[in-house]
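Need the bound structure for SAJ, inputs here:
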Amino acid sequence: MRGESKPEVCVIGLGYIGLPTAAIIARANCPVTGVDVSQQVVDTINRGEIHIEEVDLDGLVQGVVQRGLLKASTKMQAADVFVIAVPTPFMKDGDHTPNLSYVMSAADDVATVLKKGDTIILESTCPVGTTEQMRDRIAALRPDLAMPGLAAGTPDVAIAYCPERVLPGRILEELANNDRSIGGITPRCARKALAFYKRFVRGTCVTTDARSAEMCKLVENAYRDVNIAFANELSMISDAMGLDVWEVIRLANRHPRVNILQPGPGVGGHCIAVDPYFIIHGAPDQSPLIRTGRAVNDAKMRHVIENAARLVGDNPGLKVGCLGLAFKANIDDFRESPARLVAATLARRFGDRIAVVEPYAESLPQEFAGTGAALVDIDTALEECGILIVLVDHDLFRAIPAEERSRALIYDTRGIWPDFRQHTSAANL
Ligand code: SAJ
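Answer from helper R.:
Posting the output first, comments after.
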């Protein structure tokens, strides 16, 4: 990459973050190769189509593929800048140990084509220290290249950690406009990564060291998790006391320095419910609050299942409409969703009495198979169901007028129907 010439970029991982990132870099006229392990994903993108739902992403990908700026491949390609955006789940080992195998395998692949002058940027959410671990791994594979922070003198490559902080449904807008933390293994690495992000980010890019940038990403999501836990704890206290939690929060939030988040059926998605464990795993004895936040949000899910099961069990003649499967409003993402878990648990227990309404689903997920539960549209649910359980605050549900749901018993875990809140407290179920 010399002077003002456009760097060739390789984005590894073409999922919810990698594909929009690749497309936005390509829009800035940098030639991008997206690399993914899935041949199907690669073929879809090379046709100018997309495999995920995200506002305006289809048109953008189609445009940059047609202009020859974005192509996809299952094979690693040489480039000037490598952006790694692969998943970092945790292991199902009871300890929530971070699983860095995708990151390290991407690093191994990059090492095969790496050359002097290249920049490697890790974007995946990672435990503190991962970027240095990745550097050490590449150093072992490529002893011919001087790595930053290891040898004296100017290193041959730059390595940085630069997390995204975008919200599903607003990814393209937030990728361009949000501020970013750019953490270099050395200040020189941070400057190299900064020059790259300046090409397509309008938000302020703040440089720091790699470990601080790693922790910053985890802290943002743990902060939100702990704050949602406070709201969820208040909702369970309110249920026990026969109070309307949304009314209490609405009143408290009129204080100029109070801003309580909203309770719900638990916390879902792949970030907020996962990232706090990366902090807990790194400092188990120093993180009781963050650990408790996770426990409270999981307890809220069980609390909702118990309340819903009691309501359904106490009214054996009534059909039940479960409204929503997504992990949050107005998106088509059902992974790690409390709504999906609640609905599936009810389906296993109450079989064909359960009807699920999910405007973003074409069929029910596999765990509903054989339960007798059916996917229905909202009008069918309003006609046939004597019990309605609100699990997701999709706009479609929010807009249902009071008279269309006035005959049903309602359990509104999202607080979208203020006129029916008296039914939501456990004391009234
Ligand atoms: N939720 C509540 N009550 C609230 C807010 C959210 O119950 O008041 C629930 C949602 O229903 C959902 C879960 O929390 O189940 C997570 O939703 P979210 O909107 O808080 O967050 P995500 O997972 O879509 O995106 C988060 C964002 N992080 C922060 O807001 C700190 C986003 O900016 C990050 O980029 C993203 O995680 C990520 O990729 O890490």
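Comments: The longest helix spans residues 210-241. The radius of gyration is 24 Å.
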